[in-house]
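Hi Q.,

Before the meeting this afternoon, I wanted you to have the FE2/S2 (inorganic) cluster prediction in hand. No need to reply - just skim if you have a minute. The sequence and ligand are here:
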Amino acid sequence: MQHDSKFTNQKFKLVGTRVMRPDGVDKVTGRARYGADTFAPGQLVGAILRSPHAHAKIRGIDTRRAEKLAGVKAVITSADLPDLTDGDAELYNVLENCMARGKALYDGHAVAAVAASDAETARKALKLIKVDYKVLPHVTDVDEAMKPAAPIVQPRVRSKYRPGKRTNVAGVTTYGHGDVDAGFAKADVIIEKSYKTEQVHQGYIEPHACLASVGPDGQGELWVTTQGQFAFRNRCAALLGMEMSQLKVTSSEIGGGFGGKTHVWAEPVALALSRKANRPVKLVMSREDVFRASGPASSTSIDVKLGATRGGRIVAAHAELRYGGGAFPGIWGEIGAMAAWACYDIENVRSVGYEVVVNRPKVAAYRAPSAPMAGFAVESTVTLMAEKLGIDPVEFRLKNAAREGTRASYGPTYGPIGIVPTLEAVKKHPHMRARLGKNQGRGMACGFWFNFGGQTCADLAIGEDGTVALSVGTVDVGGARASLSLIAAEELGIPYEQVRCNIADTASLGYNDMTDGSRGTFSSGMATIFAARDAIEQLRQRAAKTWGIAVKNVAWKDGKAIAKGKRKSLTLKELAEASSNTGGPISGHNQVVADGAGVSFASHICDVEVDPETGATKVVRYTVVQDAGKAVHPDYVEGQFQGGAAQGIGWALNEEYVYGEDGRLQNPGFLDYRIPVCSDLPFIDTQILEIPNPNHPYGIRGVGETSIVPPLAAIANAVSDAAGVRMTHVPMSPPRILAAIKSSREEQELTR
Amino acid sequence: MRYEAPTSTREAIALMSGAKGDAYLLAGGTDLLVRMRGEFIDPDLVVDIKRLPGIQEIRKTARGFSIGAGVPCAALGRHKPLLRAWPGVVEAAQLIGSDQIQGRCTIAGNLCNASPAADSVPALVAATAKAVIVGPGGRRRLAVEKIITGPGATSLGKGDIVSAIELPNRPPKSGDAYLRFIPRTEMDIAVCSAGVSLTLGPRNVVKQARVALGAVAPTVVLVPKAARAIVGTRLEDDALQRLAAACEAACSPIDDKRGTVEFRTEVAGVLARRAAVIAYERARKKR
Amino acid sequence: MKGIPVSTTVNGDDVEFVCDGRETLLDVLRNHLGLIGAKEGCGTGDCGACSVMLDGQLVCSCLVLGAEAEGREIETVEGMADGEKLHPLQQRFLEHAALQCGICTPGFLIAAKALLDHNSSPSESEIRYALAGNLCRCTGYDKIVRAVRAAAGDVRRQQKARARRKAAAQN
Ligand SMILES: Cc1cc2nc3c(=O)[nH]c(=O)nc-3n(C[C@H](O)[C@H](O)[C@H](O)COP(=O)(O)OP(=O)(O)OC[C@H]3O[C@@H](n4cnc5c(N)ncnc54)[C@H](O)[C@@H]3O)c2cc1C
Ligand code: FES
Ligand code: FES
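Predicted structure with the ligand bound:
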């Protein structure tokens, strides 16, 4: 059935209210079950042996002593995960990442695994496995990896970077339009600047965990913390040679993902162990494993060149963006190149993205993947330009901001978008006029994210008591069940409490793309509306049948069927109660490719205080302004804004992967991988703007990701204002800031 | 792994000195369990000291205070006389970890773990604290700085147990303070730190001082030159500058994931200066 | 390997279990006693997701050996509500949307309860420092701090009501 997804500007009764979430009580009483919270009869404990080397040839693995240990039920190596990828290079990369095949590519790469009767036995068994490594030269830095003499991480990588030769650059992509050289020729002022950002991790508090069970009949079940049960099913089935429909994947409650749980890591290993042992296997990653061997975001090195007229118009922009993708080729440089200039209307613009392979764990998506680093470089340079031109940074951005009809640097022409409104809101915000204290400074920056729609499917079943069970296939990462229930209730015209939203397993609903690209509420919201309309169609038919009139004469309003000339209406409840006599159960269904996810913009304001003697930076005030399209549940929209900002603040100030000379990760734990703690942050003020997405019946846009994009530059701009130093290396940790303060002092003394 | 929770000191000493394989004492466990989890150690025997007699007590003695080796740091702040006499030691102990960690961690464990970055140690050294050791050789008393011999290494012998940490009584007009640098506001290990203890004489001139630095060398560093820089002064600017310079000169740190050589050296001086000012103010306000 | 028999009290109930010497209290709660409310976010004391009360003291259960629980009293998130009635903190966490994914929530609830039990009028800064041992990656802590502040008000009202009732009974 075709559905009209155009925005209708209807008046909402429920959408936009702050109702209690249906999964709340379970989560405050300790009942909710996450990845590690389920148990199967006879379950074994799985554990993975990981490479201590950044790069090493595996000459042999001796598992005999481990196999003989009492209580060990299965030991596997890559030989137990045969290559069934049939030329699918991307799938092969996933397979190789799950278990090293002849070569360990990073510190933490899995090389073998065991399943044993208990954790202590599994731990001992791992110690009994002997791996014969030949250590190879390694490279972990993006810029180093691009040099011709760098050790080659993946011999199979080829690209136009060094045609016909081995290289660590797996891809080069270019975006933009106009004549950039001609543009720079017209510029009165040109700024060129280079930036670096270190590798960061999503840092979800729940480690990867699953319970896998595969029998000799080829049937299997997987309970797993994931952002996409269907994608996990497809991946795991392909890697293990199982039929899709034979593997049922159930998504547990998820303890944070932010992109990191869109990829399979240990799940295929757990399934292979279970298959070999013919017992259920529970596999839970340690925090150390999560840092060493699940996908962080890229480290980057970026050059930006920006040209403007004295009047404050950007006439040319160019960026070269080098993204370290870990040990496998990715698309991270490309996404960074697409996102880099998306906030602005620029006549001559170009960006080039490089995919660089290094001896680090395989990079995964992290909230608006690749955009924060590009945003850091671009938004720092934009503020620098404004300063150089003597124009207020907000005004300068307003002069150059993209608008409806602007051709985006990455290709499409924008519809109605929110960057100008967020900038106007920033201009008016009292935060911009608040007094600053000693050693304090203020900065602002903008951010952009594409958002995504994709394949979606929803079922809506009406019980005989008139309550509604809504089944969706997008994992709820934080409040989506409340939002989707609101949407179903709104559409049906019934109270919120009468809807219960359930996240379906892969055996109970058609395929859904993952909860990524901020698509959960956008796309499942759309499918829910259409499924509800499908159900309303049937409700009208039942009413027509009851009344003995034509369906076209029956309308649906406020949860009731009404018809001209009928004094009485038929409520949803009455129709449901009678359903067994009017044609059986009533349910609505929809499957859709949810196109038209509207792009999203945000502008952030930030005040920091820098201790000039130690370089310590404290965020003292923070404001997020973002376009939500339509905030279905404002609490959880604010929560997304705040959470993203906090992650961006951590990234900007203290989070980084520290590698030693030996290529080993030095800080695989929360003690030294420093995510913000409660006392590090102020309240994070939010302002929700609603510029409806014309491609969604309710005007919804994705809201989950954009908020992580502006903080890096907002903080850099604030630090510059507070301490007079322009930081070009993220994180702006105290040693880096103190060194910058010292060298700027020395420079000033020299020039005096 | 065997776990024992003896209720007599003699039993504990016997268990430890008779142990075959790797044996460890367990106080709060906030270092020990982390090291077990990280596979840095794999004990065959763990002897929990928390059920030993008197180990959970803070006692006021003729000499000063005796803090049992099992007393969690959270309890130090609740002991008002101790807090009044040694606010710097208490604040150092209470910087360790979170409220959760505070409920378990001990200053004896902090000392015996022998991390160069241990927070309570510079404050204890500045305070001339002593460790009471019981072991197969009987009972003895040792200055805390004599316990630590290197990163993770102590002078304790097989079967030795630190049973208490002792702090002396305070002369009038005395104050102490401890500051550390961490990148976040909580939950980090010190990048560098400074403990200062001082006593004022007539007209609020510093009569006596001790300055100790943490995380800038393999072990805690006592810096007599820094102390001399402020003795005889009222912490005028130039005295503070000399103190900071002496501290910087005493640093021999390393570059690691937590900080650089330059950063540690420079900030150690800054912290010592700031801690001296706090200690001085505390001393001045006392009678 | 010989297991260690342990008798203890969890949420007021007498409990017995046999554990391995290396097993932590968190392992025991989750794997032997079926109490999955306490979570393992790190296993090394850094995240607070495993927070429980041990003899009235807030601790990370991942840094306590199961064997240490002998003769002690343990309280977990499962014991927080009074029958059907949620604790004010639980109620306020729901009302203020102080959880997104919710994995950190049990730990925050226990840590916040430990705070309010001895200080029912904490300042914002006191709340933030008291909760610094609990990591949340989803919320930026904003709504958590607000929820704790609101719950503190409830606790103060409860205390006043109790005091009034006591005074009335004495009169
Ligand atoms: C999350 C977290 C944060 C932390 N933050 C800090 C911090 O900010 N600052 C800091 O300094 N430390 C920090 N630590 C480390 C640790 O908490 C402290 O060192 C603590 O004081 C150790 O005390 P404990 O009683 O827990 O020691 P335990 O772990 O019980 O013991 C530590 C070592 O000392 C030995 N030992 C213990 N008691 C005795 C005794 N009586 N006699 C002889 N040997 C003994 C043990 O065998 C062991 O080797 C942190 C740890 C964690 C997990
Ligand atoms: S699991 Fe115990 S503190 Fe993280
Ligand atoms: S709500 Fe997800 S970690 Fe706190």
